Amino acid sequence: MSGWGEYALALALFVASHFLPRLGGLREHLIARLGRRAYFTAYGFLSLALLVWVIAAAGRAPYVALWPQLPWMRWLPNLAMPLAAMLVTCGAGLPNPFTLGGARRPFDPAAPGFAAVSRHPLFLALALWAGSHLVANGDLAHTILFGSFTVMALAAIPAFDARARRSLGPVAPAFFAGTALLSLTPLSRHGWRRANTRALVLRALLGLALWATALHLHELVIGVSPFPL
Question: Pick from 35, 51, 10: which is nearest to 222 by CA?
């Protein structure tokens, strides 16, 4: 199978992997049988493998140009991806159960951690990744791919915030007062810096290391150089 057929199959399986487990209590059954950690580890590897396949299949789909690729467009991912990588590493395990990749423990307004900088860092990282790559490409297959991810990431933010308001009820104002969509203000607060600087620096350095690794493996894995021509 090749061309549009492979791309459609890869995309359909990726979407199905995110919706089918929610039907009929399948996810809860698997968690009870395998354990939460084993389930989400396996699910994470499956999602990553399907994502790599979708991206590779988009590159093999017939090229249908929608707009010309200009040299400056290649700079957008190179500027956005270091920030996206740091958002992922700094936001993983965020003490916020109402976001992608957040810890399940209740939110403590007195110790918001990185949630004070962003309560949805992984969604923002996904939007940066997809949006910058949407512009840098210009063909139909990649527009479907990166456009879908951009819309999904941006739409998820108000949806998760609405769920937080419903779940938290009268304590919701404290939750939103202690967090932000994206703000650097906490960096100016002595108490916040004292509690979070060490972990923030280590996680940010890890993010930059992952970005540098992905940058240099991009051509080998994806088949396209990330550098402007």
Answer: 51
